[in-house]
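Thread: quick sanity check before group meeting

JM: Hey all, I'm pulling together slides for Thursday and realized we never actually wrote out the predicted structure for the chain we discussed last week. Dropping the sequence here so it's in one place. If anyone has concerns about the input, flag it before I start.
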Amino acid sequence: MANDIEVFSNASLPAYLANTDVAELNGALTSHASVSFPVLSLNGKRFTVVRGDEKKVVMNPRDPDSTAQYIDVVLVRVPKYTAKAYYTGTYNADNEEAQSPICFSSTGIIPDETAKDPVCSQCKLCPKNAWGSAVDASGAVGKGKACKDAVRLAIAPTGSLKDVMLLRVPPTSIRSLGEFGSQLTKHNVPYMAVVTRISFDPNETAQKLVFKAVGFLNEAEFKEVEKLNKDALTMAITGETPEVLAHLASFESKLKEAPQQAAAPAPKVDKVEAAVATGKVTGEVLKEVVEKDNKKEEVTEVSSASEVPGLEDFKF
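JM (edit): ok, ran it. Output follows.
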């Protein structure tokens, strides 16, 4: 690297630094640099690799004049969370990279701390996350949600596993991704072990993706992907950064510590009323009847309902 300091290449690390928590100490330095990674965009139902200001449409290798009908990749990491993003104005799914959400959540549980203008403290309570809150370009209210769901996949081209990039699976394709996962699980195959072919559903006008396993990685490739699965850059791509996870852990901890609303006490059941309603009379009920009639004498045993006025028709 151009910024390497020569002293590191000519000297061993001093012994007194052996037990120093370098990551924590240097965190203040690294926190000022935003993490950068390539994005596989779906703009216009075309696979486009975006690297900063550079955009490159993936072309069909068999026909260089046409765009690729599918891409073969490796799913390096699939987060357990469904991310959310709310955009002001009219959202354009074909040009998502050119838009910036004012509120977003990497976990789909609470807004990220870096969200510009959080709408609600919890995603499940947010009105923009409710079905029927979506508004189209004409201003008409739709059936969908104003806050868009997406699964942030960390993927890599089969020929360049270290070139990990982001693919946002749109809401129209989340079910397809889940079905693909079910198929792999049925055959006892981890998603990191296969080459996944991603294509657009030709029967849909929306950006609906189709996922299909077309081969296995070899052992060396699989081990490399296993390492990349927990790499810091990979975790940033899926939105599982230490900051995001710490923010979520703090929220969940406070939620557990919050005083729980006490359950309402069970209504007191009047034994006499219950006996009348069910037709079942016990010695205990008869005793209570006697006490209600201000007969304070001790009832030790009752053998017949005829001994208590009003209960002649009951049998016990």
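AS: nice. The CA atoms of residues 193 and 217 lie 6 Å apart. The radius of gyration is 32 Å.
JM: adding both to the slides.
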